[in-house]
Write a structure and sequence with these properties.
Blueprint lengths: L2 H29 L2 E6 L5 H9 L5 E7 L3 H10 L7 E2 L2 H8 L3 E4 L6 H11 L3 E4 L6 H14 L3 E4 L6 H11 L6 E9 L10 H7 L2 H4 L3 H4 L1 H11 L7 E7 L12 E8 L2 E8 L6 E8 L3 E5 L3 E5 L6 E4 L10 H9 L11 H20 L3 E2 L4
Parallel strand pairs: 1-2, 1-4, 2-3, 4-5, 5-6, 7-10
Antiparallel strand pairs: 7-11, 8-9, 8-15, 9-10, 11-12, 12-13, 13-14
Length: 372
């Protein structure tokens, strides 16, 4: 065999071997369980998360930080969790278990202290919505994330709705024209009425720990969606009206809220309620030439120019963005850059809007973000 041909053949074999090794390493990384710690157990969504991951092998809980011994005993028993994974503080949990990411299920006020602790250890986080109770806390978390070089993600149930992604695509494909109005509905009959756990109800109805009532609990969904649809553009104005309709139940926080956002050529009406007879999370997007109205998680009603309305099934999501676990794995293990609904960039704008909405409701005035 000629020397040049042999050299070429050997080089090809070596390159193929290296490529196979790289692919094998990537596959191993992606298929290995993501080791996570949990910070806090007072957020009721932790129960759903623990139920969701029971049959999954791609995520492993290595530690839980919770100071309330009654809560740890409850969850240890209910989900047959090992006793030795529970710790009193986030720092101790991280030091002892070395998680690759931390999931935050504290009250919203405590998000800041947990993010700052995780940043000190260089551990990325994903928290339940919203990001923070105030813009001041959000900025502190952003600064901590930059110092610690960690990713900070926010989990909203509506992020994983195929219908919302389909509506977004119709806007950004220019199928319905430039946005003119968006109406978002998020609510249910109230946390007490749907029988949330007593420890969950206690902080949901505390204005310091929750940031507000329905305004923050449900208003954040619509603010997040509108900010995403508008490619993170800050609105010009924020106006909010809140009420306390069920004073005998919710004496200290609002149970009814409406947020109005204005942009140079668009308006959003974001409705948040603890007074509705049924649970509801949907969105109406009206463009210059058509509209898209989401129908629960997986469908939408669409009307385009010179066409009748039709109902469509939304296409499946990218597997990496189909649920919170897959998304967290993609960001932490595969290095996917965060963007959109869960990203810190988007949620900094969301927090600024929620902060302004609370100020507007308290003062009865429209808040001009250009002045802030």
């Amino acid at each position: 065999m000629p020397k040049t041909l042999l050299s070429t053949l050997l080089r090809t074999i070596v390159l193929a071997s290296l490529a196979a090794s790289a692919l094998s390493a990537q596959t191993t990384s992606s298929s290995s369980p993501l080791r996570v710690g949990i910070a806090g157990l007072v957020h009721g969504h932790v129960r759903g998360f623990l139920q969701q991951i029971q049959p999954r092998t791609d995520i492993q809980i290595v530690g839980v930080a919770e100071a309330d011994s009654k809560l740890t005993e409850f969850y240890e028993s209910k989900f047959s969790l090992p006793h030795n994974i529970f710790f009193a503080t986030v720092d101790e949990m991280i030091e002892k278990t070395k998680p690759q990411a931390v999931l935050i299920y504290t009250n919203t006020f405590d998000h800041r202290s947990v993010v700052e602790a995780c940043a000190r250890h260089g551990v990325p986080v994903m928290m339940e919505k919203p990001l923070a109770v105030s813009l001041e806390d959000a900025r502190a978390m952003q600064a901590a994330a930059q110092r610690g070089k960690i990713q900070v993600l926010v989990n909203y149930e509506t992020t994983w709705y195929r219908s919302n992604r389909a509506a977004y695509d119709l806007v950004h494909e220019n199928s319905i024209g430039e946005i003119r109005k968006v109406v978002v509905h998020d609510g249910h009959s109230g946390p007490k009425e749907i029988n949330v756990e007593p420890w969950f109800l206690a902080w949901l109805t505390d204005p310091k720990l929750n940031g507000g009532g329905a305004l923050f609990d449900f208003g954040c969904y619509g603010v997040d969606l509108m900010t995403w649809l508008m490619d993170n553009r800050r609105p010009d104005t924020v106006t909010a009206v809140t009420q306390r309709i069920k004073l005998d139940i919710y004496a200290h926080v609002d149970d009814e809220a409406t947020i109005v956002l204005t942009y140079p050529k668009a308006q959003a009406i974001l409705q948040a309620s603890w007074n509705w007879p049924f649970s509801r999370k949907d969105m109406e997007v009206y463009g210059q030439t058509g509209y898209a109205i989401t129908v629960e998680r997986d469908a939408l009603r669409v009307r385009l120019a010179k066409q009748a309305e039709e109902r469509r099934d939304a296409k499946p999501l990218d597997p990496r963005e189909s649920d919170s676990v897959n998304y967290l794995r993609a960001v932490v293990l595969d290095g996917m850059p965060p963007k959109g609904l869960s990203s810190l960039e988007t949620n900094m704008v969301v927090t600024e809007i929620l902060d302004a909405a609370r100020q507007s409701a308290a003062t009865g005035k429209t808040i001009h973000l250009a002045d802030k």
